[in-house]
C-alpha cells in the first residue's frame, strides 16, 4: 500500500487543501489512461491555480483500482518515464470512489445526481458505448441495451446509467450536466449524444427532447501513451518509491488534451494546466486517430505477428519504423482537414515517442478490440483513397494483418487469445472460411465494421487479398520489409 510519508523527497505531493475540493465531476472508467491524463491535468490546476473541482471516480466492472484508492486515502502516483529517467507526482483530486458492482449502480446514479456535479466524463474504450462503430448508431440488439430497455430503472450499460442520472436530475429540477467522452473515437461527443438520445427515444420522447435542447456533449482529443500496468512495472515503481502503489501508473512525458469548449454548467479552467480549449475538435481528432492511433494499430498487428512484444521493439526494426512513418505521411496525412500544423514534424515526434524504451506499450494491448477501432483509424482513410484514386498499400496491409491476427494463430502456430466484443462472430466466420480470398471476403462482410460498401470495393479486396497471401507466404517482417524497400 502506498505510504506517502515515506516517498522520496523528489516526489511532488499535493500542496493544496484537499478538503476544499468539491465533487463537481464524475468520471466513469478509472483506467490507467484517465489516471495519467485528465486527472493529472485537474491535479495541476488545483496545485497551481487553486481549483476546487474534484472527482468522484467510478468503475462499473473491475473493482481492484477502486479498492486500492480507498485503501490509500484516494491518493495514487503518476510516474513519467523517458528512457532512463523518472518523474513522479502524487494525485490528490479524487474525493470519492465507487465500484458499480459492489456499491451498486444506484450509488453511481446517486453520485451523478449530486447538485454540484457539472460534468460526467468517461474513458470506457470504444466498446463501452454499445454502438455500431461503422455508423455510430446505438446498437439496440446489444445485450446491455436490451437489458436497459426492459429495466430502465436498473440500467447496466454506460448510455443507460447516464440516461438514468439525466432523468432524475430533470425530474428533480437540478441543473443539467455536460457529458464528455475522452475515448478514441471521431466526434466522440457526437457519438455519446447519439447513443444517449437514441436510448432516451426508446423510453420517453419528452426526456429525449430535453436532452437535445439542454445538455451538451463536448468532444475531446486525448493523447498520452499510457501502457497497461504489469507486475514488472509495479515492482519497478515499488523499488523507486519505497512502497507499493496498486493504483499507480506510468506514462510518457508528452501530454495533449484538446477540448470543445461547450459546457452547459461550467468547467475547470483546464487551459491553465496544459489543455487546449477550441471551437472544433474534429480536425485534431482526425489527425491523432489516423496518424498516431492508426500507426499504433498497424504496428500492433504486424508487430505482434512479427514477434515484437512492444512498440519500442518495432521501432528497433528499420523496416517497421519506415512503414509507420510512411503510413502517417503518405496515406493518412493527405486525408486530414487540419490546417496550420506541420504534419511531417508531428510524424517525427510520434516516431520519437514510440522509441521511448521506458514505455513498455504492448502490441497485444493495442491489438485488443480491433473491430471497434478499425473504422476510425483506417477505414475512413481507405474510403478517402478509393474516392481519390490514390494508393493505400500500407492501410491494406494493416487490414490483412488484422485479419491474420483475428484468425487466432500466430506465425509460430501458437494460439492468439482474441479480445474483441465481436470475437464470437469473427471466430465463426474464420471457422467457416478457408484461409485466403474466402476468409478476406468473410471478414470484409462484417457490416458493423466495414459498413455496407467496402466488401464490394474491388481495389480494396484485391490489395487485401494480395497482402494476405504475402503474410501467409513470407510472414509479417518480410512482408513489411519488401513493401517499404520495394525489393
SSE arrangement:
Layout: E1 22-28, H1 32-36, H2 38-49, E2 53-59, H3 64-71, E3 76-82, E4 85-91, E5 94-99, H4 100-103, H5 105-112, E6 119-122, H6 143-150, H7 158-172, E7 178-181, H8 188-203, H9 205-214, E8 220-223, H10 231-241, E9 249-251, E10 256-260, E11 276-278, H11 282-305, H12 311-315, H13 318-332, H14 343-354, H15 363-367, H16 370-388, H17 393-406, H18 423-431, H19 437-444, H20 447-450, H21 458-474, H22 476-485
Parallel strand pairs: 1-2, 1-6, 2-5, 3-9, 6-7, 10-11
Antiparallel strand pairs: 3-4, 8-10
Helix pairs in contact: 5-7, 7-8, 8-9, 11-13, 11-16, 11-17, 13-14, 13-22, 16-17, 17-21, 19-21, 21-22
Tell me what you see in this structure.
The structure is a single chain. With 487 residues, the protein is α/β, with parallel strands linked by helices. The protein contains 22 helices and 11 strands. The strands form 3 sheets. It has a 5-stranded parallel sheet with strand order 5-2-1-6-7, with helices on both faces. A hairpin with a 2-residue loop joins strand 3 (76-82) and strand 4 (85-91).
Condensed summary:
The chain is α/β, with parallel strands linked by helices.
Supply database-style keywords.
487 residues; alpha/beta; 22 helices; 11 strands; globular
The overall average pLDDT, rounded, is: 96
Count of helical segments? 22
User: Percent helix among the residues?
Assistant: 40-55%
Strand order of the largest sheet: 5-2-1-6-7
- Shape descriptor reads globular
Find the structural class using helix and strand composition.
Answer: alpha/beta
Strand content: 5-15%
Low-confidence stretches: none
Main pleated-sheet profile: 5 strands, parallel
